[in-house]
Amino acid sequence: MKKILIIFSCIIATSCLIGAMLLSSCDSTPIAKNGDTVQVNYTLTLADGTLYQTTVGNQPLEFVIGEGDYLPDFEKAIVGMKVGESKTITILSADAYGDIREDLICTLDKSQLAAGVEPKVGDTLKTTDTSGRTIVVVVTAVSDTTLTIDANFPLAGKDLTFIIELLKIS
Hints:
Elements: H1 2-24, E1 37-46, E2 51-54, E3 61-64, H2 72-78, E4 86-91, E5 105-109, E6 124-128, E7 134-142, E8 146-150, E9 160-169
Antiparallel strand pairs: 1-2, 1-3, 1-9, 4-9, 5-8, 6-7, 7-8
């Protein structure tokens, strides 16, 4: 009888151990994947630590992973995350908005501006390119007769660090 109790105890202990192992591998927490609509909070800082943009305390960003609406590395970073999880990633400029293109910086004669326009360094101006698309340029230098404008995206040439928190998967 004692032998049967010992064997029975071993069987119960083994069954409990196997059950616990199976349950621990059956985590039902959803994981973000391509095609999911997600809500995230993010904070974007530049290499020098400058805060560039954040959704924290504002409207979270909602999008469908894999549709290509945001930087590919940003979207890929969310794949595999669980709700409530946070992570920090750095995207190098070449993989973000590219390097600064010198061909997008030019000096213009002020006579080409509309009458009464007196731009200052840091101002943004709208213009059209040769195909008729509206582009925004930043004034980077002004003299008595000329101004220098830069049509590079404002984050071109910058490495970007994102702190991402996954808020919702639907």
